[in-house]
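Study this fold:
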Amino acid sequence: MKKYVLTFLIAFLFLTLQACDKSDEPENDNAECGEPEIGEYTITWCDEFTGEGDNVNAQGLDLDKWGVQTGTGTEYGLEGWGNGELQYYREENARVEDGRLLIEARNNSYEGADYTSARLRTEPTFSQTYGRFEAKIKLPEGEGLWPAFWMLPQDDVYGGWAASGEIDIMEAKGRLPDQSSGAIHYGGQWPDNTYTHGEYDFPEGRDITDFNVYAIEWEEDEMRWYVNDTLFFTAKLWHTEGHDYPAPFDQDFHLLLNLAIGGHFDEYRTPPDSLFDEPVVMEVDYVRVYQKD
């Protein structure tokens, strides 16, 4: 009899410990992410743009993941967002539809600007130091269009732009659909800043108007840029005034997505009366962030 009681007690204890272990496991906040691992990288954040969540706005955007910036930049002391841009950013120009984020630029005057578009960032909700940052994006073609997927420092640890750095995962010029680029900005506060960049030329039969995966792998002493898993640019040297390497790229950065109109990136100065008549759209299938185990 004692043998059976002992066996029962052991089994009961085992099951109780299993239940305790499961109750102590953290919930998987990234269960909806499409690809939880890439090589040595494990996912830490994503948006698959399902249009669902506890804090979704009228356009289906998850405000627990994104903040929406509005205006012409004057609200931040940056007229034309510091680049001579022509658009007014509005929340209404970004929406989630059929599992994708749509950032739409329109030729409609608003608050003194000739165009409207949208600019999103994770600054209120998420930032990270080092890892793999990627997005699957389809870009519009056209004169004066400047779509970007990029990163800014969360806290400007080393001073104002660009002393604390900027990471451009993807930028494109709408008039040059066969090419995209990546860059870092660093050195000192404007105008004592500098940058390093690389360009990617699409193979025949593909361009920015296709869905492409733009990614960067950011480590303490190296950054690598990819398009569709093709490495096209590596940076290993940077600096910022008065601080040791690897500053400024040793702090948390947050993500941004936007579609600008005009601006100095394409040495754009004197636009025609109308760059486009019908709305143009930047489509984002997903954004995913990973970190090495």
Observations:
- Residues 1-28 have pLDDT under 50 and may be disordered.
- The helical segments are 2-24.
- The longest helix spans residues 2-24.
